[in-house]
Predict the 3D structure of the following.
Amino acid sequence: EIVLTQSPGTLSLSPGERATLSCRASQSVSSRFLAWYQQKPGQAPRLLIYGASSRATGIPDRFSGSGSGTDFTLTISRLEPEDFAVYYCQHYGSLPRYSFGQGTKVEIK
Amino acid sequence: QVQLVESGGGLVKPGGSLRLSCAASGFTFNDYYMSWIRQAPGKGLEWISYISGSGDTIYYADSVKGRFTISRDNAKNSLYLQMISLRADDTAVYYCARDLCSNGVCYHDFWGQGILLTVSS
């Protein structure tokens, strides 16, 4: 089973700053199988990034994903007020079919 | 537009059973895998089950295997989750999600708004 560990748990930043979120897999995974989701309070998650670096439909280009092997990164180039949320990475693969990281909360400093 | 609407949640006693439903619209339902994902209060996301478009491929997380059954009715554009032997740790918001699958990889590209299940005496 692939275990995803996200860091930091909480990121305190100001609007306009750059956010860098990390997702580390317990073993090497194909970047094809790595996705990122955003969840705002009281809302369902939303797909941001798939295949480690491809933006989902309608996702602004300030969101970017990168990485390979065991280390993946979600970067928000300049935080907008609507970007303060919890972000989850996810791996799709062998059972369990999907596994999620524990999430990183991006909060307003 | 794609819409997923869950229903059937509520308060159930430990050991009880319940069936969740997810009504889909805005896309060709039987072309897509569908998943159930849950989120305990204040916690992260946990995938629990998925089903192929035809219903012939099904997987469960270990935490619900043997207690939960996923199914679908493509004529009604509906996804279901039958839950038995419910426990307090099944308390969560349950989301249905459409799985976009291509070249052997899948993602949840659309999610319902979620429905709360509370298991308590």
